[in-house]
Amino acid sequence: MKIYYTALIFSISILICSAQERFIKGTITDGENLLPNANVQIVNGGVSTNTDEDGKYRILASPGDALFYNYPGMEPIQIRVEDVTKTLNVEMFPKVVKLKNVTVTKNRNNSQAELETQYATNPNIIKTVFGYLDKTKVSYSVRIMDGNDILPGEYNLALVLQNRFAGIRVLNGLGIGSGTIGTPNATTVGFGAAFGANAGRSVLLRGGRAIFDIDGQLFTDFPDFIDVQNIKRIGVLSSSAGAVRYGTMARGGVIVINTKTGTVIPKDKNGRPWDTARLRNNFLREPVVSNSVVLKNAPVYLRELESSKTFEEAQAIFESNLDKYAGNPYFILDAYTHFYEKWNAEQFADAIVEDAMDSFAGNPVVLKALAYIYESQERFGLSHQVTKDVFILRPHYAQSYLELANSNRNLGKTAMAAKVYARYFYLLDEGFMETDTSTFSTIIKREFNNLLALEVDDRVVKSKRVTMDGEEYKGTRLVFEWNDSEAEFDLQFVNPEGQYYTWKHSLEENPEIILREKELGYACSEYLIDGSIPGIWRANIKYHGNKSLTPTYLKATVYHNYGSKEQRKEVRVFKLNVKDTNQELFNVRTIGSIGTP
Q: Which residues contact 197 (CB under 8 A, 6 or more apart)?
């Protein structure tokens, strides 16, 4: 299939999706009890139904429809129907009573006491060293960004400032070199950058160097101690009128940062600012189960296969289960992986998949799992063929372009990979793809920049009329992708000192993120680890299910020495089917500022 016809395929796929009505069924619970008479309706569709006495429902819907689940005393849930959606078993959560927003009066000048009262609910208010400031009540321009707009994968203040506020430039100093940076060269997972990693940086507003007002304290140096995930609000005072109260030191403007903790910034033993995340009582004490324990909860046929002593014994076990599970694509994936990886029986393993392709065809979720497994085995040709099949099924999914480009790159077809990326950005510019400011936007831009920086000839870049943003991050990069967009889990990172950060990918904790993922068509996240805390980092996961009885496949790509000529990657695939148990995924070692295996 030629990439040049993507726009046409994209339009056709929308027409096809709109005609694929099917019954969606499932059960609604509160985690323990069935919820009878819960309401399920199609948003703006005029179709609704209620669950029966067993909490079960059935509703006719099409891909793209949004189902709205409602029950007295429970938080409502909205789930978008996809091309593979057939079963949605929904768990609802108790409703949290929230105070109504404070109404802003027409009084031109609110008192500081009133502003303090309104601060928590009014996103137009920031706290400065001179008191609270409401941007709607002043005569000069104030730009404010809410901390909720900071994505889980963002951990570097320089990158947040430069990407979110027009007119801001972050420059390097102290002999590091000057000029606009793209991705700062020290980003961590949940714990802030190493002291001095941002040393010498300066932020330019109005052509001058800006100062920082952080929780009522003034700083002239770049605040490398800030834990970005702890930011509640950022305000930018770029005009002379806005910065006049700060005096001549603010001739370059002021960046106001309010943190969630809002505490006085502590010092380490050397008198330098300390990352506030390290002050939390976030040492991992929860037990983490190993992969061997997870295997004990695997299907009986898989436990039998893994316990086999010879290839012939394993073959007999497979054949004895074939009639029972022949139509189950996950049985086929398990069997293929077992024979290929344990017995090196390539021909036999491939025959298992070939004989069962009817159960794979047309199902992008299962095909993605197969592509993940092939890639982890470095069978890039087979992975590429399956990835193209997924692209044909889902040309309107943003991640399809990322996967197809990376697949071409695995084969050494870097020029074709660049064309796929360029095509995606062209469709974005032309309005065929929805404009994206999510985690995915950061990931695909970083992938494209990395390709251009390390592998693509300048002639290709010029011929496609694409430009490369500055990409200076070097270290260990982790990219996670999952085949089922309904999957819910907690992804946990534990640093060498035993402290952890957890990203909760669930409808209970982050429903807006999951809805946005499905609207744009992506299921991935990335994390960067710098060398500020060298040693063994651990990645764990607590899987909560995917609203059906099928497993979810998680692909983890670990990039070592990312951004350098020595960059290399390894791909690992995990089958998730054990729920609500903190399970180990893998460890990665970092040394200094460059990640090494």
A: 184, 185, 186, 224, 530, 532, 593
